[in-house]
Amino acid sequence: MGEGLRVSITLSGLSRLFGGSLAGVVDFAAEADAAGIDQIALPDHLAIGPRTDRYPYGAFPLPPDEPWLEPLTALAAFAGATRRIRLATSVLIAPLRPALLLAKTLATIDVLSHGRLDLGVGIGWQREEFEAAGVPFEARAARLDDQLRACRALWSGGAVSFRSPTVSFDDLVCLPSPLQAGGIPIWFGVAPTPRNAARIAELGAGWLPIGADLAEIGRGIAVLRRAFEKAGRDPAAFGVRANAPALDALPRMREAGVTIAAFALGRFARSRDRLGPFLNQIAALR
């Protein structure tokens, strides 16, 4: 049914599914690996503030006391518990982290996972989260660009210097380098505006649509293809990881140009005893 489409699971609903034993997510990652799932992904929030009414994509989907694992720490644990499944962030609020530390952490996970890391990034929406981290909320998209370009420079393997408005350094060597040729694939969770499309065409391997409307996703893919052509890149070379609205949606997603169908664990598995059957269902779609 989903021929040509990979399947991914986004870890959500952790309090309901894993309760007071959040370490169970590591066992779940190993089970997903054994079941043949292509990718497992973690979302990101360092903290949740009181103004979830400012969430720009509708009603905020989780209560304020829902636990959010720090994704890079968790993916490092997954790297040691799995063998073939790809490990992803979807999405990491990258500007909250210093560029040098981010480059080192990501390269370390890629090395420990034998080259299985996918980096999904976004700019976040909570002003309080940025202020608490001591990072300016304004111009965070430009900060993300500087940060990712700096990471790419640091991943080159030699002594490098870098200059940008928000990140600068001279003659630094940051080893180990990622195992993946060309560095860790970067996927952008942003709206497909012309500016963002140019950003993805310059720095990205893929797009993470925010919504699940396939007509809108198709229009976004068309914008991205034009941007890739303008940048001299193959428009068929970028991936699209989109949220699956239902188990039977894969044929429609594939027709729209989606390459990875993402299933939110908390939406499709309503209780802990449903985790095994859910994995079997998703694996059968491949």
Relevant terms:
286 residues; alpha/beta; TIM Barrel; eight-stranded parallel barrel; two-stranded antiparallel ribbon; 11 helices; 16% strand; globular
Care to give the gist of this entry?
The protein has 286 residues and is α/β, with parallel strands linked by helices. It has helices spanning 14-18, 24-35, 71-81, 99-112, 127-133, 140-154, 194-203, 214-230, 250-256, 265-268, 275-284; strands at 6-10, 39-42, 86-89, 92-93, 117-122, 160-163, 168-172, 186-188, 206-207, 239-243, 260-264. It has eleven helices and eleven strands.
Question: What this model shows, in words?
Answer:
The protein is of the alpha/beta class and 286 residues long. It has a single domain, classed as Luciferase-like domain (TIM Barrel, Alpha-Beta Barrel), CATH 3.20.20. It contains 11 helices and 11 strands. The strands form 2 sheets. It has an 8-stranded parallel β-barrel. Helix 9 links the parallel strand 10 and strand 11. The radius of gyration is 18 Å and the shape is globular.
**Separation of the first and last Cα atoms:** 7 Å
CATH secondary-structure class: Alpha Beta
Strand content: 15-25%
What structural class do helix, strand and pairing data support? Answer: alpha/beta
Number of helices: 11
Which shape, going by the Cα principal axes?
globular
Please give the oligomerization state of what you see: single chain
- Name the average pLDDT: 95
The fold-level CATH name is TIM Barrel
Give the biggest beta sheet. 8 strands, parallel, barrel
Strand line-up across the major sheet: 1-2-3-5-8-9-10-11
Number of domains: 1
Q: What are the low-pLDDT stretches, counting only 5+ consecutive residues below 50?
A: none
Question: What is the CATH architecture descriptor?
Answer: Alpha-Beta Barrel
CATH homologous superfamily caption: Luciferase-like domain
In helices, the fraction of residues equals 25-40%
The succession of helices and strands, N to C, reads EHHEHEEHEHHEEEHEHEHEHH
How many strands in all? 11
Radius of gyration: 18 Å
